[in-house]
Design goal:
Blueprint: H1 2-34, E1 51-55, E2 58-62, H2 66-70, H3 73-89, H4 93-97, E3 100-106, E4 109-110, H5 111-124, E5 127-139, E6 145-157, E7 165-180, E8 183-190
Parallel strand pairs: 2-5, 3-8
Antiparallel strand pairs: 1-2, 3-4, 5-6, 6-7, 7-8
Length: 207
């Protein structure tokens, strides 16, 4: 009986220690959470933002070294993707295809084939969502050709009441952009072939 009582007392002390420890942790966390807001920092002290959220449906994230590597072309590429987003958002096929070079080629797909794909997407889906991360691979000496390594995904919904479905996704695919008539155009995409599960056709990153 005495052994049983001593055991219960010991157990009670251990439980109390655990409660006190948890309570102290909660208090510390609460103090941090409700503490004074950090002092505002000079904008010039903040790290440079390389994420470009053009809208809730379209985001492009450049690697941290992109500005240094691209120079003046950096903002031009931001504008290029902004135009692509606008055309996708309003389903303007002609405006979107203007971001592709007339000489576009990706394996057996040319510009006409890509146009047919986008035409079907715009006709079938209510809205389209594109997110991708970009890393600068190569910039030509004359700054007329740039290769960006991209990983991203393309989602869409059939109607506002249904959830988004995946149309395409890609990993480490190289986008080749060239300047034609003073404007950047996508001329090719290449990378390691990757096949869909249960399908025999390779993935095709659309953009």
């Amino acid at each position: 009986m005495n052994l049983h009582i001593r055991t219960m007392v010991t157990f009670g002390r251990l439980a109390m220690k655990q409660v006190i420890t948890v309570f102290a942790g909660v208090c510390l966390f609460s103090a941090i959470a409700i503490g004074a807001e950090p002092k505002s920092r000079d904008p010039s002290e903040l790290p440079e933002q390389l994420d470009h959220k053009f809208s809730d449906r379209f985001t492009v994230k450049f690697g941290s070294a992109a500005k240094q590597q691209l120079g003046d072309a950096y903002q031009e590429l931001v504008d290029f993707f902004d135009v692509a987003e606008d055309s996708i958002d309003v389903k303007d096929l002609n405006a979107h295809m203007a971001t592709y070079s007339e000489n576009y080629k990706d394996g057996d797909k040319d510009r006409q084939a890509i146009e047919e794909i986008w035409k079907k997407i715009f006709a079938k889906f209510e809205r389209v969502v594109v997110h991708q991360n970009l890393k600068v691979v190569t910039v030509s000496a004359d700054k007329q050709t740039i290769i960006l390594r991209s990983s991203g995904f393309l989602l869409a919904e059939l109607d506002p009441k249904k959830r988004l479905v995946s149309i395409d996704n890609w990993t480490d695919q190289d986008f080749v952009l060239v300047k034609e008539g003073g404007k950047w155009k996508l001329i090719s995409i290449y990378g390691k072939e990757r096949k869909r599960f249960w399908f025999d056709k390779p993935m095709h990153p659309l953009f």
